[in-house]
Each structure stands twice: as C-alpha cells, then as structure tokens.
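Q: Could you predict the 3D structure of Sec7/BIG1-like C-terminal domain-containing protein?
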Amino acid sequence: PDFNAEDVESSFVELCREILQFYIEASSGQVAESTTSVGPHPSIPLSSRRRRELTSRAPLIVATLQAICTLADTSFEKNLGIFFPLISSLVTCEHGSRDIQVALSEMLSVSVGPVLLRSC
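A: Sure. Here are the predicted structure tokens for Sec7/BIG1-like C-terminal domain-containing protein:
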C-alpha cells in the first residue's frame, strides 16, 4: 500500500497519545470512557499491585516519550497541543519507575523548552 508522510505521522501521534493516556488512567486508577479530558488527578498512594503494573509499563512510556522527541521540529511543534496536556498529567502522576521522570525531564528540557522559548 501507498503511505503518505502525513498519514504515518498522524497514526504515530495518535498511537503515542493513546499509550500515554492509558498509562495516566492506569496510574490514577481511573477507567475513562472519554480520553479527551486530561486533568490532574488526586494523589492516592498506589497499591503494590498497581505499582508493579505501572513499573512493567515504564519501558513503553519511556520509549514513547523518546519517540515523540524524534519528530521533526515542525511536526513536534504542530503536535505539542496534543502532547502537552498528557505530559503535564504525567508530571503529576505517581510512577512505579523513576525512568519515566528522567525521560520527562529530558523531553521538557530538550524538546518542549526550546519550542516554548521560541514562542515567547
């Protein structure tokens, strides 16, 4: 089949959005019908079972954050409106793994920060 770059990028962005949204919902213990509203969730201590589940998902989340950072600058900037609420929610999530916090920090300093500075 013939794929164009816009379709591939759109599918990639949607897949990344779904992965991050699912993790955010899992970390908050929330199973939402709608994935369009992402907001801060109250901080509830994680059960050891849920913490193990989140820890097992951490490599996928880290890989997803790193993959998002590989988007070309214009694509990253164009899709930042989709990713920024998710990134903000991830910052407030209680994680089973420190690796996610490290990946978030790197993403914010290397990819998101420069976009925000250019827009000022």
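Q: Anything worth pointing out?
A: The chain is about 75% helix and 0% strand.
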